[in-house]
Amino acid sequence: MRQVSELLSRGLAAAKARPLFLAAFFFAVLVPFVLFGELAEEILEGHGLPFDEPILRWFHAQATPARDRFVVAITTLGGPVPMVICEVVVVAALFLWRKRREAKFLAIAGGGAALLNVCAKLVFSRQRPQLWETIVTEKSFSFPSGHSIGSMSFAAALTLLACPTRWRWPVAIGALSFAITIGLTRLYLGVHYPSDVAAGWCAALVWVGGVYTIQRWRGRRSRGEERAAD
Known about the structure:
mainly alpha, 9 helices, 0% strand
């Protein structure tokens, strides 16, 4: 975790001496990247994270039949099918509004995150928690959480798309709250460790932030070339 502390210190320096975009990139992409690497290293070495089981047991202690039904309904919204439907609808709407660059960004952000999740699960092959009999059945590997990476990638992409508009704060608060809630439902249900959820959030932020940065850089470069040609 010493690397995380060093990155945070550098981020504070960047926030003072550099443009806001650089500081935002640092905290939204580089810090999650290091956190994901730390978690992945522990999983690959076969070490358990000390906070995983205590947090899961705390969530399980809050369980009631009414909460069970509510959480199952909410967690379903963050599943693969609902997320794909939401992304297709938004991408189609952006195309209809002739915002092709934004539509392309959202499609790459969502599709790439899904592919990243599948590959990561196969690489780490972490078994799911088995601390109690869960009320939902999951057959895939545990690390990272697919619900977390899917919902956070969608939320982060929507937030970035809304940044230039007057809707940026409502979209950011609503979308990120949704993604965080989905991740917490996975802990309540006991189908993921907290480290799985955290890794999913980090992976999503790194991927979406990276795609956005590359697209923005390419856009500036193409505009610069057009001006030079004129």
